[in-house]
Design a protein that fits this description.
about 100 residues; alpha+beta; Arc Repressor Mutant, subunit A; 2 domains; 3-stranded antiparallel β-sheet
């Protein structure tokens, strides 16, 4: 099974449950813990879920957009925002 298919299956389990642990996802999907962990990392990296190490939850559309925007803005030196120690701050060097 391709990674995209695994991610899709896991995403739907999390969405149906509202939040789910690796054990819960494993019991519903039949996937191994390692496969689930890798999928959760990909889903989180793609701004679709939040995962705190215990439970995974679906992000709302506004949360997805903000997370994705911040993720990509941080890579741009002329971004109006920066992230320091997990805190979103105005970029003092921004000249917009």
């Amino acid at each position: 099974m391709r990674e995209e298919e695994i991610d899709w299956d896991i995403y739907h389990i999390i969405a149906y449950e509202n939040s789910a642990s690796i054990e819960e996802i494993s019991s519903k999907s039949g996937f191994e813990s390692e496969t689930i962990t890798e999928s959760l990392k990909r889903l989180e990296s793609n701004c679709l879920i939040r995962y705190d190490g215990e439970k995974a939850g679906i992000l709302s559309v506004p949360e997805m957009l903000l997370k994705c925007r911040i993720k990509h803005a941080v890579c741009e030196p002329d971004s109006p925002v920066i992230i320091e120690n997990g805190v979103i701050k105005a970029n003092p060097d921004y000249e917009g």
